[in-house]
Structure formats: C-alpha cells, structure tokens
C-alpha cells in the first residue's frame, strides 16, 4: 500500500486485491473517525484511532424536540417519558412545566397527560401570573425557585425512565445545548442544557436508577 504525504493530507493507495479488501473493511470500520499522530520517529510513526469525530472532538448536541438524531429525543422535555413526581404521574416534563401555569388542579391533571407539541401548546391559554402555588408553596414566576422545579422534574424523569436515562448517558462527554428560535425567558436554553449535564454527571456516579439530590 502506498502512502502519499501532501500538505494537510495523508493519502493511502491500494496496490493489489488483498490490500483493496483490507482497505475496504478498514474504511467502513473507521468512517468519520479522528486519528492522532504523536510525531513518531525518523523511521516512521503510527496514527491512533480516537473514535468518531463527534465524540473525539466533543461536538455539542442540540437537544430540541423533533430535530436532530432520534436517539437523543428522549432527553428533551417534550419527549414521551412517563414519570411520577410527588404522587402525580406525568407523560412528559413539558406536561409538568406547562401545568404550573394553571391554578386549577383539573387543568394540571389534564396537561400532565400531554407530551410533544400538545403539551407545549397547552400553556398558550394560561393567564399571566407573577406567582403560582405548587404543593403548598408559592413561587415567583421565573424565579430561581421556579427553575428549581424544572430540575426536580428532570431528576425524577431520568431516575425513573430508563429510555431517557440511557439516551442521556449515551451523549458521553459531549456538551449539550438547547437552541431554539425563540428562547424562553422563564428558563433559557443555556440553563436547561446545564440542568441536563448536571443530571448526566449525577447519573454516572450511581450504578442504579437513583439520582442523588444536590
């Protein structure tokens, strides 16, 4: 096999049928991988396979419902990932979050069963409120305590829903983002992504489905 060096390129060229077969197998196994060269010596050197480019380079993953790779979809708040929080079942984190915009328990129970765009749209009809009550406590809309409820719901989701938990852990060390057309003022995308990464770190520390409180 010939090796040709050019500026910014290392070119491999097969010279017989055996090399062609070996190269074909190697090409398929390492497609879109990153290789590292440590400098070698005067006699030569080797390239070490660092794995897929996205993982090796820690390319960010933008978690948005309906966008991107299907394997990451369970991480998002709109995903159908049932869990229970303080005695009430929810079909999605979005169903929990949007339900907080309504004071009537009947509305909260109804929205709790929604997921996807239906859950998100449920909040459009909510009245504007500077504060709301949840589980016997009053919260200021957009406050740090309000955002803490999102973290609470996400912890419950990833602790109880194995599909969501495995999807989150499968992101490895890659940064997570949540970039949408119109960012939320209540819980900006950067805050949301940071919550997911905090929970991911906690998941790695526990062999079972429990997620320690911070």
Overview of the molecule:
The chain folds into 2 domains: 2-56, no CATH class; 61-204, YbiA-like (Tetracycline Repressor, domain 2). It has 8 helices and 10 strands. The chain has helices at 17-29, 53-56, 93-99, 105-112, 116-122, 144-160, 162-169, 189-204; strands at 2-6, 9-13, 33-37, 47-52, 61-62, 83-85, 88-90, 131-134, 137-140, 176-177. Helix content is 37%, strand content 18%. β6 (83-85) and β7 form a beta hairpin. The protein is of the alpha+beta class. Strands 1-2 form a two-stranded antiparallel ribbon. Strands 3-4 form a two-stranded antiparallel ribbon. The chain has a two-stranded parallel sheet with strand order 5-10.
Key phrases:
two-stranded antiparallel ribbon; 214 residues; Tetracycline Repressor, domain 2; alpha+beta
Strand-helix topology:
Elements (H helix, E strand, L loop, with lengths): L1 E5 L2 E5 L3 H13 L3 E5 L9 E6 H4 L4 E2 L20 E3 L2 E3 L2 H7 L5 H8 L3 H7 L8 E4 L2 E4 L3 H17 L1 H8 L6 E2 L11 H16 L10
Parallel strand pairs: 5-10
Antiparallel strand pairs: 1-2, 3-4, 6-7, 8-9
Helix pairs in contact: 3-4, 3-5, 6-7, 6-8
Give the H and E element order: EEHEEHEEEHHHEEHHEH
CATH topology of the largest domain: Tetracycline Repressor, domain 2
Compute the number of strand runs: 10
- Could you tell me the mean pLDDT? 92
**Residue windows where pLDDT falls under 50 for at least 5 positions:** none
What's a concise summary of this model?
By secondary structure, the protein is an alpha+beta fold.
């Amino acid at each position: 096999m010939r090796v040709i060096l050019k500026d910014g390129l290392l070119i491999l060229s097969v010279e017989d049928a055996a090399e062609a077969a070996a190269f074909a197998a190697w090409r398929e196994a390492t497609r879109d991988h990153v290789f590292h060269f440590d400098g070698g010596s005067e006699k030569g050197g080797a390239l070490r396979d660092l794995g897929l480019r996205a993982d090796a380079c820690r390319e960010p993953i933008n978690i948005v419902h309906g966008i991107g790779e299907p394997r990451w979809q369970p991480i998002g708040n709109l995903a159908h990932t049932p869990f229970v929080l303080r005695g009430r079942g929810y079909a999605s984190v979005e169903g929990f979050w949007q339900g907080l915009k309504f004071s009537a328990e009947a509305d909260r129970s109804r929205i709790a069963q929604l997921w996807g765009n239906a859950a998100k749209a449920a909040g459009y009809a909510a009245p504007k409120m500077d504060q709301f009550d949840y589980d016997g406590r009053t919260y200021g809309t957009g406050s740090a305590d309000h955002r803490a409820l999102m973290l609470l719901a996400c912890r419950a989701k990833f602790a109880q829903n194995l599909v969501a938990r495995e999807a989150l852990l499968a992101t490895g060390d890659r940064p997570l983002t949540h970039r949408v057309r119109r960012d939320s003022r209540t819980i900006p995308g950067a805050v949301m992504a940071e919550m997911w990464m905090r929970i991911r770190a906690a998941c790695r520390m526990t062999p079972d489905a429990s997620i320690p409180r911070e």
